[in-house]
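Technical annex, item 7. During the second reporting period the consortium partners agreed on a shared format for inverse folding records so that results from different sites could be compared directly. Each record opens with the tokenized structure and is followed by the designed sequence. A conforming record, contributed by the partner at site C, is shown below for reference.
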């Protein structure tokens, strides 16, 4: 899928991380996220979920708006968060917006101060995101998009209560996207407990 309908500045910025189009499943995932519906995206590793999430973030967030976060992307490990944030940072520099990395191995005071200074995109892990939320370190009122990647892995680390609290604190207008590699029984039970209407997009390569 070409990026004809994306903001031209975003298209140019995405080229800096070698994303020039979306193909196959990634195209399907992007179209689903673009619909604005709350989604469960269940597809194998390397099927394009993370790339579709990145492009979707910049489809919604490509200019500064009151200095408040507009998108949050969480994943299960610090390493994955760092890789994703490095990519967003390259795109952000071209668009003159900010992406901040938050995780529990970093200095929370510094992370909170960076967010207070103004950021459009936050990338991190659920543990630190919840800690910052408890300290009123993140304004989530203006969020457009809240994505949890590797969702089944995030909740397997005994962080269900924290993640549920974060999700339940979102405004109704905030789109929620939960992405899984395998929709486990534990993930299904958690999703059911949220009492949120989701649309499921599922890809099976077997």
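Designed sequence (site C submission):
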């Amino acid at each position: 899928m070409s990026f004809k309908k994306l903001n031209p500045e975003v298209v140019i910025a995405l080229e800096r991380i070698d994303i020039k189009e979306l193909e196959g499943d990634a195209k399907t995932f992007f179209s689903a996220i673009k619909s604005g519906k709350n989604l469960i995206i269940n597809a194998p590793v390397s099927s394009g979920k993370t790339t579709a999430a990145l492009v979707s973030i910049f489809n919604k967030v490509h200019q500064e708006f009151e200095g408040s976060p507009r998108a949050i992307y969480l994943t299960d490990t610090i390493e994955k968060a760092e890789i994703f944030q490095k990519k967003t940072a390259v795109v952000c520099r071209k668009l003159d917006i900010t992406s901040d990395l938050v995780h529990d191995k970093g200095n929370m005071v510094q992370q909170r101060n960076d967010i207070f200074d103004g950021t459009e995109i936050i990338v991190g892990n659920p543990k630190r995101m919840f800690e910052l939320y408890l300290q009123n370190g993140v304004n989530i009122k203006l969020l457009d998009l809240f994505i949890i990647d590797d969702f089944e892995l995030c909740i397997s680390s005994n962080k269900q209560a924290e993640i549920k609290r974060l999700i339940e604190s979102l405004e109704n207008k905030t789109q929620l996207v939960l992405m899984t590699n395998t929709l486990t029984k534990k993930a299904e039970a958690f999703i059911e407990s949220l009492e949120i209407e989701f649309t499921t997009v599922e890809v099976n390569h077997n």
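The beta strands are 39-42, 71-74, 99-102, 121-124, 145-148, 175-180, 199-202. The chain has a mean pLDDT of 93. All partners now use this format for quarterly exchanges.
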